[in-house]
Each structure stands twice: as structure tokens, then as C-alpha cells.
Amino acid sequence: MSISILKQKYIFALYCLVAAFFCCSSYASIEYKNAELGGSIYDYTYREPDIMKLTGQMYGIDAAINFEYLENKFRKKENVSKWEENLFIRGELSLAFGKVDYTSKNTGTIDDEDNSRFEIRMLLGHKNFLINNLDYYAGFGYRKLVNDAENMITTTGHYGYKRTSRYAYIPLGLRARIGSSKKFKIEALAEYDFFLRGKQESDLTYLGSYKSEKDQNDGYGARGSVKFIIPTGDKKEFIVEPFVNYWDIDDSNPDQYGLLYEPKNTSLEVGMKFSISLY
Predict the structure, then answer these.
(1) What is each CA distance from 181 to 106, 177, 227, in whole angstroms?
(2) What is the pLDDT of residue 12?
(3) Distance between CA atoms of residues 149 and 104, nearest Å
């Protein structure tokens, strides 16, 4: 099923936003500011209410790169407007792997299924929105989650299979810089994720069946975190960041043969991220 007209308008608006920001970034001399590299550990819970759940611990590798206005010989600060000076661009990449346990009141249990997540995001924003130290941003995100129970059998004799979920979404967020000193800084982030479209695949081919593909058109995400930033000298910072990520996705459309669908589901990730920032 095609994306609704409303969501097509959102995608067009995002395209215009990206084009506008890149044009502005070239004019306003937005340049590399810093990169972040680190790891994360979090508890993962996926639920299909009254049907099944997956629970386990995930381990991640996280990277980000930030661009902001920097004064240079071509664009002196006195010749740049406040609007230009406060632009920023941020790119994020995250990989995570772990084992999860499957539990269902109807089809038994399986332990230690392989689980992985890939996520990439581009954020474009503006600092000091309405008041000082409050930033806003928008962007585009893509998330892929793979749960692999192929060749595994539940305690009640049901066969597992490989499931792949893909989400496209627009992050809309606020970042508050709520504390700063020579010894530490604190930033709080709150974000709503506007769900554009999802696709869920259930690969049953190894059982002599087919790969079921279902479109997901309705849902939302939300996330929040607090960054504790500790300068360590020599243009480096150590960052500790507790976080929560949440997704709520409605029933999918029937698959290509009208036989199967993906039930309403939620995902919750609660954990901690540790990273180094290099200027």
C-alpha cells in the first residue's frame, strides 16, 4: 500500500528542509565541530499484547558527528546573523546485538534467539529556540531490527523463523542545555518520532512456505535521555547518557496473499550509553 497523501506531504516538507539546511550550511560556514564514539547496554522488551513477548539484553556501538557554525577567514562572526550562527547538523549511526528470550502463552518458549538492530539518523536544527539553551531539531531516521529464530523449536513444538522489521520516521525533538561549568555539562533530550512507514517480513521459506511481507502505516515513537558531559582536557569529553526509547506500532495490513498480518506491538529500550567526544 502506498504512503498516505498526508505522509507524502511530510516527506516533501522534509526534503525541502534538508535542501534548505544544506544551502544555509554552505552559506553560513557550518563546519565539523566534534565526533562521538562509544558503546551502550540496554534492556530490550518487545510485546504483542496477549500473544507473545521478547526480552533480553542488547549491546551497542554508537557513533555521531556534529557540524556547527565556525568562524573562518571567509565568514567573520560580525558578518553572520544570529540565525545562521545557531544552525547545526548531526548524523548518528547505531548498531546493537544480543540474545532475547521468546515467551508465548500459546506456543511456548525459546531461549537465546539472535537479535540485532541497525539505525541511522540525520538531524538538522537550530540552537537557542525561543529561549537560550533550548534547541530544536527535525530530520530523518531509518531503523532495521532482525530477530532470528530460524531452525529453533519452542517448548510446545512450534518452529521459529526469521523476522525483519524496517521503520522510516521523522524525529522531532528538543534539547535543553540545563547545566554547564568547567567540570561538567548536562543536556536533556525529548523527542517524538513521526512514523512514516514500516515493513515487516516473516521468512517461512525454510519450512517450505513463503516470505510474508506486511506494510505498517500507523504508529509512533518517543525517546528521552540525559547527557552528563565531563571535560577531560586535550579537546576530549567523557559522556554518560541514560536513555529510554519506545515504539508503539498498530496492526499491519494483510500480507501479499491476504493470509497473515503483524499484530499491534510495542518496543521498549532502557539503558545507558558511554562515549568519548573528540573535538
Answers:
(1) 55, 11, 14
(2) 58
(3) 14
What does residue 154 show for φ and ψ, rounded to 5 degrees? -75, 170
Q: Who's near 110: CB < 8 A, 6+ residues apart?
A: 101, 102, 149, 152, 153, 154, 155, 160
- Residue whose C-alpha cell reads 521459506 in the numeric block: 205
Q: Looking at residue 1, what is its pLDDT? A: 42
Q: Give the lowest-confidence range in 144-148, 180-184, 193-197, 200-204.
A: 180-184
Quick one: DSSP state of residue 232? E
Bridge-based pairing state of the strands 30-48 and 52-69: antiparallel
Cβ proximity of 106 and 51 under 8 Å:
yes
| Residue 114 cell numbers, joined | 539472535
Helix, strand, or coil (residue 157): coil
Beta strands in the chain (DSSP E): 30-48, 52-69, 87-104, 108-126, 134-148, 162-180, 185-203, 211-216, 219-233, 236-249, 265-278
Average pLDDT over residues 41-60: 97
Q: How confident is the model at residue 183 (pLDDT cuts 50, 70, 90)?
A: confident
pTM: 0.87
Residue 132 burial (CB count, 10 A): 8
